[in-house]
Amino acid sequence: MEDLKLALLGFGNAAQAFAEMLMEKEEEIRQVYGRGVRVTAITAPSKGTILDSQGIDLKKVLADARSAGRFAEDTAGLCTRNTLQVIEQADCDAVCELTPLYIEDGQPAIDHIRRAFQCGKHVVSANKGPIAWAYDELKQEAEEKGLMFFYETTVMDGTPVFNLVEKTLKFCRVTEVSGILNSTTNYILEELAAGKEYGEILEAGKKLGFIEADPAMDIDGFDAAAKVTALLNVLMNAGITPADVDRTGIGDITAEDIRKAAERGKVIKLLCEGRRTENGIAARVKPVEVDQSDMLASIDSTTSVVSITTDLMGKLSVIEHQPDLRQTAYGIFGDVIRLLDGQQR
Ligand SMILES: NC(=O)c1ccc[n+]([C@@H]2O[C@H](COP(=O)([O-])OP(=O)(O)OC[C@H]3O[C@@H](n4cnc5c(N)ncnc54)[C@H](OP(=O)(O)O)[C@@H]3O)[C@@H](O)[C@H]2O)c1
């Protein structure tokens, strides 16, 4: 059988970690499926574009991207194309959307996925923008064309959330979701509690790679709102956008608030919640005080948790413990393996 051919849109942290995982498991995949996974296109604005049906030498492009910040001139298939042209022209079965999140409207990633479906290509997205802003439309487009569309990485990296519900909780109706979905806010609140100033925390967090260049994404709850929207759209057919989320960030929380909460036996956490009400879906991101004995109080540092309430299986929670890029890579990898499984049928 022919290899599964992939185009990678973006070659940043997530894509590079995924490329490494693909190399690590190359032989095992071939043994299990009798075919491999071949990357035939990569594009990233500052690194360049490569189109090579024979399969890109991942080891070389990783080394070049890391040492020089761009693909070397001697790379086979190096060319000049924009992202939409790559989607149209790449010799690939599937497109991996690994470009940055633009929280305001999910673009240009939504257009990338639309174009991929128009070209008859399956899609794996690590980018939550399209799931938060255009899930229904994209899902419908994929279904109409008989294409696969997977996005496990978008909420808790490789931790099974969508797969869990779809594959393991069959016939369960999800009635509520909640969780601490933005772990950066754990870090900020913990550092505040330790007596550090906001400016100092943000600077250190950026250096450690915890905090985005634009800290408002985390502090003002935009990232958390996009994640709870994605959960609600996929698990509860909510049909909402991040603009529908009642959102309060942690920007107004002071060290004094945290100290007073502790005196009452409480911890402050940025909680995401969504449930069905008589008036439709209610979604909220808000700092709340939880009991120190509550499971949520133990979700600290870069750990995150999602709880899913269902009619048949009650409430269950999944915790992702201190992830790094490997968990992100696994989310993308797992979705690509689902493509192989889907094509076997
Ligand atoms: N990092 C994580 O742990 C993590 C976890 C879950 C989900 N995600 C999601 O995964 C996606 C990628 O994250 P990342 O950490 O890899 O980001 P990143 O390191 O900033 O990399 C983004 C890549 O996309 C490229 N790019 C930017 N605009 C593009 C366009 N229009 N067309 C094609 N490529 C474009 C960038 O090009 P240059 O190389 O030229 O800058 C870069 O290579 C994001 O949506 C993120 O939210 C990431």
Task: Give a summary of the structure in a few sentences.
The protein contains 14 helices and 13 strands. It has 345 residues and is α/β, with parallel strands linked by helices.
Task: Considering the chains and any ligands shown, give keywords for the structure.
single chain; Dihydrodipicolinate Reductase, domain 2; globular; 14 helices; 2 domains; alpha/beta; 345 residues; seven-stranded mixed beta sheet; 22% strand
Shape designation: globular
The named CATH superfamily of the largest domain? NAD(P)-binding Rossmann-like Domain
What fraction strand? 15-25%
Low-confidence stretches: none
Bound molecules: NADP nicotinamide-adenine-dinucleotide phosphate
Task: Provide structural commentary.
The mean pLDDT is 96. This protein has helices spanning 13-24, 26-33, 58-68, 83-89, 109-118, 129-145, 153-156, 162-168, 184-193, 198-208, 216-219, 222-236, 255-263, 325-344; strands spanning 4-9, 37-44, 48-51, 78-79, 94-97, 122-125, 149-150, 174-180, 246-247, 266-277, 280-291, 304-310, 314-320. Helices cover 42% and strands 22% of the residues. The chain has two domains: 4-158 and 326-344, 3-Layer(aba) Sandwich (Rossmann fold), CATH 3.40.50.720; 174-322, 2-Layer Sandwich (Dihydrodipicolinate Reductase, domain 2), CATH 3.30.360.10. It is of the alpha/beta class. Strand 12 (304-310) and strand 13 (314-320) form a beta hairpin.
